[in-house]
Amino acid sequence: MQRTLSDISYSTDEIALAAIAKALSHPVRIKILRLLAGETCCFTGELTSLIPMAQSTISQHLKALLEAGLIQGEINPPKVKYCIHRENWAKAQALFGDFFTSEKSGGCNC
Predict the structure, then answer these.
(1) How far apart are CA 20 and CA 12, in angstroms?
(2) How much is the pLDDT for 110?
(3) Contact 69/36 with Cβ under 8 angstroms?
(4) Are 87 and 74 in contact (CB under 8 A)?
């Protein structure tokens, strides 16, 4: 079902920002990122002692952050190590910074 008369095009930055915002849309993911940002690396097993949730739930949140590119992982059985993806983290900060500081003309002056 078409909702508009014409196609809407989105910039690469708009698509990237939306994906990052979606990954940040749960408070547990924010907590995980804050914990990981303060460390060099972190094993998922340690996260369950810091965030009182089931390992499977933590893993689902880690997967969302991984898919958005905000974290990276290394598998060394039996543990999986996750860290902030520093390059993508810096890009996310820049995208949000640009988004919140951009001045667009023609906006509402309420």
Answers:
(1) 12
(2) 62
(3) no
(4) no
| Nearest CA-CA partner of 23 in 56, 55, 57, 71 | 71
Q: Give the chain's mean pLDDT.
A: 86
Written as six digits, the tokens of 74 are 């290394």
pTM score, whole prediction: 0.80
How confident is residue 109, by pLDDT bands cut at 50, 70 and 90?
Answer: low
Please report which confidence band the pLDDT of residue 44 belongs to, taking 50, 70 and 90 as the band edges.
Answer: low
Nearest to 73 by CA among 100, 110, 36, 20: 36
The stretch 76-102 carries a mean pLDDT of 89
Task: Provide Rg for the chain, Cα atoms.
Answer: 17
DSSP 62-80: HHHHHHTTSEEEEEETTEE
Q: What CATH class has 13-98?
A: mainly alpha
Contacts for 32 with CB less than 8 Å, ≥ 6 apart: 47, 51, 58, 61, 62, 65, 71
